Amino acid sequence: MAHYAPAVAHISEDLLRAVAAAAAAATPPAATHPAATPPSGGGEVPGFKELLYLAGLEVVGQICLDARMGFLDGEERMSPRARLILDSVRGYQTASNRAMYGVPMWKWLPEWYRPPPPKKKETVGKKFLSPVWISYIIQRFPGCFRDLMRHKDNLYRLIGEVVDDKLGSEQVFGEENSVLNQLRRAPGVDRRDVKATVVDYITAGVETVGNSVLFAVAMLAAEPGARRRLQRELDKQQQQQQQHGPYLRACAQECFRLYPTACQIARILEEETEVCGGFVLPRHTVVLCHHRIAARQEENFARAEEFLPERWMAPEGEELARRCDRSLVRRIKTSFMKF
After folding, report:
1. Which of 133, 190, 239, 334 has a CA 20 to 30 Å removed from the CA of 311?
2. Do 210 and 275 have their domain in common?
3. What is the DSSP letter of 225?
4. pLDDT computed for residue 285 by the predictor
5. On the CB side of 160, how many CA atoms lie within 13 Å of its CA?
6. Domain range holding 74?
7. How many CB atoms lie within 10 A of CB 195?
8. Is residue 40 part of a domain?
9. Closest CA to 77 of 160, 31, 21
10. Contacts of residue 175, Cβ cutoff 8 Å, sequence gap at least 6
């Protein structure tokens, strides 16, 4: 990821400027009357979560497309294409949440949603599931499913245009470590696959990046000692122009332990597998590893519910590791974190 570090640093600086501008806009003018009472709730930044989501979208776009899209530039200065992409991403997330957590009407196809039967000359097969039939069915599904498909199609078209522009230039070929270049060189992957993969990256990376940063900020805000220690390390790095930040890395690992971006890892068994208790899981069974649960158990982590970044650092973390029956710090360092 070192290839993207300078660009992500610039995005971080743009995010800080956007946060400062939002805070300044929310700050009321100085009271002109001695009896005026300042409003409560000082220090809050309106729309902070939305700014983090925009920064996450900008980061994912930079990594996937090797291009700045301008999502942090503000609605007035944002390009028409970036605005359409942003609207489609928001619409896709909203429709996805409705489909996932709302009444799942789209999972069934009632009689009155079904298309008319095929003509006598047609057979129930490929022709019955032709694009015309599929379009007919989708148009009669509930709104969340239609919106989901519409926004996904818009993203494929809009992101596809950016991919075509990048792959049509010589710039992408000079960036050996770029995601686009690696996808372009992957065997059996054509341009349509590249577009679909980039769209999946972008739709999956917006809230995940934003939520991870949001939890990190919240935990550091609640722990003044950790926040001051991290600030001292960052100040020292800036003065000495160092890139290695062990406490910053420990803070990130502790945030992922308490609030992982994905709380479970899913795998499909390739062969029949015997697990504890003598139970046998057949082949093709979906297995979920809920590492968030394991990460909050006292037998795995001493003071498991506390935010303690030093547990990931030697020698400070050794004392905490000795207090629990089986410390997962070392195993997580070499397995889950790398995954």
Report:
1. 239
2. no
3. H
4. 93
5. 12
6. 2-23+46-222
7. 21
8. no
9. 21
10. 3, 66, 181
Of 222, 244, 263, the residue at which a domain comes to its end is: 222
Q: At 187, is the secondary structure helix, strand, or coil? A: coil
Within the chain, strands assigned E span: 265-268, 273-274, 280-281, 286-289
CA distances (Å), 85 to each of 88, 156, 207, in order? 5, 10, 15
How far, in Å, CA of 250 to CA of 226, rounded?
11
**Rounded CA gap, 109 and 105, in Å?**
8
Cα angle for residues 178, 159, 83 (degrees, 5° grid): 115
Report the alpha-carbon distance of residue 106 to residue 94 in Å, rounded. Answer: 15
The answer to whether residues 306 and 211 belong to one domain is no
Distance CA 310, CA 314 (A): 8
- The Cα–Cα gap between 72 and 78 comes to 8
Specify which residues 274 forms β-bridges with: 280
What six digits make up the tokens of 15?
A: 């995010």
What type of residue is 230?
L
Residues present in the chain in total: 339
Neighbour tally for 31: CB within 10 Å: 11
Place of tokens 């570090």: 5
Backbone angles phi, psi at 196, to 5 degrees: -65, -40
> Rounded to two decimals, what is the model's pTM?
0.75
In this prediction, the residues of the chain whose per-residue pLDDT falls under 50 are: 31-41, 109-115, 118, 120-129, 173-174, 334-339
Q: Is 337 helix (H, G, I), strand (E, B) or coil?
A: coil
